[in-house]
Every structure is written in C-alpha cells, then in structure tokens.
Amino acid sequence: MQTQEPMQGVSARITGRVYEVAAPTGNGPVVVTVRVSHGKDKTTGNYRPSSWYRIKCFAAKQPELAKLNPQKDDLITFETYGGTDEWTDKEGKKRSDKVWFYVAATKHSSGEAYRDDREAKPPSAKDYAAKRAEFARPADADEVPW
C-alpha cells in the first residue's frame, strides 16, 4: 500500500466517537476509526446517516496518541490533514481510499457536551505544512517506515 502526500491546505477537524483502534503491524500506523453522528432530520425525525473516518497515526506521533488512550465510544476531536491510500487488490485492480493523518487530538470528558465552535478558524495550510514536515522521510532513508 502506498500513501500519497496530502494535497496542500486539505485539513479537517473531526469530532466523533471512537469506534475502533487498530494496533500497528510491524512498523505500520495506528488506525483509529471514528463515527460522526449528524443527528436527526428536523423534517422527518429520522436519524441521518453517520460519517466514518479512518485516521492514521505514524510512529512519530504514536506516543502522543498513546497518552490520550482512545477507547471505544470516547468523544475526541482530531486535528488532521487529508491524503489518499492507493493499492492494487488481489485481482490486479488499482484501488484508492481517502484517509486522514493524525496531527493532534483533544479528548472530551464523558459528561462534557461537545459544542462545535464555528467561530474558531481551523489552522492554516502553512501551519499544516509545518506539521507535515514532522512526518517527512529523511533524504538518506533507505525505505519508507510504513
């Protein structure tokens, strides 16, 4: 599986409930699956479909994520930037999937009601470019660590 560099300026603040935390195999990333509920439709009273996100956390940020200790149903706000995973399946077809890369996170206490602060501005593309540099592969590295 090959992970492409994210597009410039594609960043997201994702707040949702942790569904699953998949431990890495070898030197791979920790993958956190998050469900974001969109509440009820005011006209029909039916619940809207949830959105699902996969957030990858590579070695450089894993100790930070471990301190957060995400568990199923924890409410967490993730600061992320987007990218694309590409691979070839068993039938030889090229496949791809959108994925989000971990930058930082805030865990909300169980009794705390989360309020999305629409006034707050997300970090700029320049801020995320500096964060991406933390994940850059050294020029003399022989292989990709994931």
Describe the secondary-structure layout.
Layout: E1 2-3, E2 11-22, E3 30-36, E4 51-57, H1 62-68, E5 75-88, E6 94-107, H2 125-133
Parallel strand pairs: 4-6
Antiparallel strand pairs: 1-5, 2-3, 2-5, 3-4, 5-6
Protein model, in words:
With 146 residues, the chain is mainly β. It has a single domain (2-40, 47-133), classed as Beta Barrel (OB fold (Dihydrolipoamide Acetyltransferase, E2P)). It is 11% helix and 38% strand. It has helices at 62-68, 125-133; strands spanning 2-3, 11-22, 30-36, 51-57, 75-88, 94-107. Strands 2-3-4-6-5 form a 5-stranded mixed β-barrel. The longest helix is centred in the C-terminal third of the chain and has 9 residues, at 125-133. Residues 1-9 and 116-120 have low confidence and may be disordered.
